[in-house]
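With this grant's support, we have settled on a layout for protein records. One resulting record is reproduced below.
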Amino acid sequence: MTDVIDLVDLAQTLPQLIIDMKYATVDNLTGHPIYAQALCLLHPDAAQGLARSVVVAEQSCYRLQLYDAYRPHAAQIRLWDACPDPRFVASLAVGSHHSRGVAVDVTLLDEQGKALDMGTGFDEMNEKSYAWCAALPVAVQRNRLQLYAVMAAGGFVGIETEWWHFELPNADRYPLLPDRFGCTLPNRRTAV
């Protein structure tokens, strides 16, 4: 059965959102572009919540920058190949909440457009990327807490292992979606 959910194009509906689709660039854990297109799509439920988060960020003198939203399953395969660690990349057996269209990877920018110091970069897969890493300076922890507050205002919850990842509660109740755009790297996995 084909899923007929129309995903929301965030570039069209949220022009105040800063979009930097990392998996369409080399600036990600694989070091290669994965997405053939830099489309920024999201399930309507998540898009509605993200719109609220964008407004709350602006009211707090920040801007929200988005690194990833909907992710094709083919891209999830490539990420799993690069980092087969379920703490950081959803296993192929379960499927990513990004592939359900209800998860985003984000950060906050200050009034000058500079990213707040979150202690690690996006896609830095280690313990310092854990949302509540006590080893990081207080200022970094405060920045992460501000990001959590902005995203909570839109109804999102974070995960323990990635400060940048937020999803709708009970995200697994949403179905995995068919691929909406292509990927650039060849499939290295013959069976899922």
Observations:
- Strands lie at 8-9, 18-19, 41-42, 63-68, 103-109, 157-158, 165-167.
- The chain has a mean pLDDT of 94.
- The first strand starts at residue 8 and ends at 9.
- The helical segments are 10-13, 44-59, 73-82, 138-153.
